[in-house]
Design goal:
By secondary structure, the protein is of the alpha+beta class. It contains one helix and three strands; from the N terminus they run E-E-H-E. The chain has one domain. The N terminus is likely disordered.
Length: 68
């Protein structure tokens, strides 16, 4: 039996139209992302995802990341 631990979280923006598609960013348990620690590309993707909420993406949800 495999034990999984929950310790890290991700902020997930799920696509409204394509199942399994979307964006996910590392965050804390409250959904705060470290913008200063992101690459420029990741930061641009994060701002894009926030701007597309309600158009192409659902409201973000904080999810625990399973570490095996």
């Amino acid at each position: 039996m495999c034990q999984a631990t929950y310790g890290k979280f991700q902020l997930r923006f799920q696509s409204l139209f394509a199942s399994g598609r979307g964006f996910a960013f590392p965050c804390d348990h409250e959904g705060h992302v470290d913008l200063d620690g992101m690459s420029e590309r990741a930061r641009n993707n994060y701002f894009f995802a926030r701007a597309m909420v309600g158009r192409d993406l659902a409201c973000p949800a904080v999810e625990a990341t399973i570490l095996l």
